[in-house]
Specification:
By secondary structure, this protein is mostly helical. It has one domain: Serine Threonine Protein Phosphatase 5, Tetratricopeptide repeat, CATH 1.25.40. It is about 55% helix and about 0% strand. The relative contact order is 0.14. This is Ankyrin repeat-containing domain protein. Keywords: ANK repeat, Repeat. It comes from Immersiella caudata.
Length: about 130
């Protein structure tokens, strides 16, 4: 199931997200049934400000692992952002050391493959 933080991320409620992440010991990275976390939803849906808000809430030592984690389809956060043409989020992700730009899913598709297949020119340029 989804947490309150999932729903805030899906609906792009930045102020609610800020309130939730300020709660001591809140779990920021709980996956739902698809193995999507709130940060995955924010990236896939192009909620750039909310994505940045969540990103800043994680300890730096955990960010790469969190973002390179694959969902039930074998896709990473970058793969979803690229496939949806969310170039601003893609650029933020590419600036993170250790982000796996060549991660493949169950169909052997990379983030670049998704961006090309869906015709997202700006995202393709960012990934090249």
């Amino acid at each position: 199931g989804r947490t309150a933080l999932h729903h805030a991320a899906i609906r792009n409620h930045v102020s609610i997200t800020q309130s939730l992440i300020s709660v001591p010991k809140i779990h920021l990275n709980i996956p739902d049934n698809r193995n999507w976390t709130p940060i995955t939803y924010s990236a896939a849906l192009g909620h750039t400000t909310l994505f940045s808000t969540l990103l800043a809430a994680f300890p730096p030592s955990q960010i790469t692992t969190i973002l390179n984690t694959k969902d039930n389809q074998g896709r990473t956060t970058l793969s979803w952002a690229a496939g949806q043409g969310n170039s601003d989020v893609v650029k933020l992700l590419l600036a993170i050391p250790g982000i796996d730009v060549n991660a493949t899913d169950g169909d052997n598709w990379t983030p670049l493959t998704y961006a090309v297949a869906h015709g997202h020119t700006e995202t393709v340029k960012a990934l090249l």
